[in-house]
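agent: user wants the full assembly modeled, not chains individually. Plan: 1) parse entity lines 2) check alphabet per entity 3) run joint structure prediction 4) return tokens. Steps 1-2 passed, two entities, 646 residues total. Proceeding.
--- entities ---
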Amino acid sequence: MTDADPVRLYRTVRLIRRFEERAIELVRSGHIVGGIHPYLGQEGIAAGVCAALRADDVVAGTHRGHGHVLAKGADPARMLAELCGRATGLNAGRGGSMHAADLGVGVLGANAIVGASGAIITGAVWARRRLGADAVGVSFFGDGAVNEGMLLEAFNLAALWRVPVLFVCENNGYATTMPVAAAVAGSIPGRAEAFGMTATVVDGQDPEEVHAVTAAAVARMRAGGGPELVEARTYRFDAHHTFEHAVRLDYRPPEEVARGRSRDPVAIQGARLPDARRVAVDAEVEATLTAAVEFALASPEPDPVDALAYLYASGLTARTGGG
Amino acid sequence: MPRLSYRRALTRALADELARDERVFLLGEDIRVAAANVTSGLVKRFGPERVRDTPLSEQAFTSFATGAALAGMRPVIEFQIPSLLFLVFEQIVNHAHKFPLMTGGQCAVPVTYLVPGSGSRKGWAGQHSDHPYSLFAHAGVTTVVPATPADAYGLLVSAVRCDDPVVLFAPAGALDVREDVDAAALVPVPLGRARVHRPGDDVTVVAVGHLVHDALAVAEELADQVSVEVFDPRTLYPFDWDSLVESVARTGRLVVVDDANRSCGVAGEVIATVVERVPLVAPPRRVTRPDGAVLPFAPALDRAVQPGRDQLLAAIHHVMKDG
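--- prediction returned ---
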């Protein structure tokens, strides 16, 4: 059911790492407009969690969402095309970085509103089970979301109705620039425990540990247990958003950044592979991403005539805005 | 012919859709006991799984419905109080409404938001007496305001079957309306299609929701002086512009009566669209709540802020005199 294969975990963290580095290059070259929220440093969480899920399980993510989409199985080429605003993108160029979604692999979307995914995934999992599947779901969110009322309401609803949702808090220490200590009264596990949920703290830099904790929680949930929370302690290696590359914001001491970057999930997982195997995976990932970049940049831009295509699933057409 | 009340028309529409489609379910506060007197008898017939009482967590259960819709269900949410829509505006507009476009057409979000008792309920004061339909029309969410029992039935059925989110406002001022309806006449009413309740030659009065009944009374009172056409849009978004243009092109005069605040209201949009397309013989008029109105508590003040028949009468006289 779940795959703790160290090679697979390494391939995923390496893929996300290199995807993000290539995406940052494309931001700098102007091919990705609007910038991105890089997932660098947090790869072990998406990789470990999603390796413990089945294809028919569902996840919903955050504005820092590339890792979740890739780890759940979306095509990196179509993902990159989406970031570049191309017609071949996962969302046909209508979503971009913060809304990338691939419902075909159970990704209900990155979501740009902090704390929004919890209630959506709770409803989706409840519905899938009602329709006969024994699916579980994962709501990813950051430490900033734990003070959002909407998320705490979702904790209550999921716990009350015993909907098997794993709430995964990626605590990278900062909500944009606000340190956790200055923003969070009480504790993150304490919030879940207040709703009667089991809460586990895990080292988010270790993909295998994240996988083990997730697999155990998923097994309990699939056996009829209610929702649980995992707080994955991690560190964001790069900026909150690539705009910071141009506007230096002074909120993380250099020594803290250096200490954070010293625990690198890609290096930690890579060290578990024989050198030759790791080199082979690296080459495979490079080939995948080189092809992805070529695909994205060769893809057509969407036709402005259809700018509001897909606005209504019912086929309703809106009035145009011109005079 | 049996008498059907507006409330029972809503009940019947919900029951028929629950019976017709297993994917339909109801969510809301105190719906099990039918506190709003709309879901009466439904829990007994369809069970508490499909007629689900929720904790007071409007934001969470609104997004829960979005998630359930993404997973294939067709939720209907009842909101006891119209002002709660301010609280969940984010969940409806930013998520339910935007998902189809943002995902590039990967999904539909067929959720119905049912608001029985919108507008003034007499004596419920500032936070229970709003009529926020213009906000949803502005955002581009399908917005329905039925005036009669048969239309309430037919539009609610169509809302539940629509693949997009639909907000249905059942004005408090219409809930006690009864009409003789043959059961065979209870059929789906297409969204986006207006209804002319009374044909006329001299002036088109566009009346929203319960004000249709006031407009009919005023038209009757004026019958020997002015021939008034009473035009009920039924759906405010998408609006049946072609039918309205056809009407005003015949009458040459336009009055709009709309129980909502004046600035940026539906009445303003109706006038703007008509004057873009039809030459009028007199400047159009609108009768609305004042700008920025907050409904005051005392009965005389509550009444003073809502559009009244005397104001409508005066507006009709104005357009007759001006032209």
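agent: reporting back. The longest helix of chain A spans residues 275-298. Chain A touches chain B through 48 residues (CB under 8 Å).
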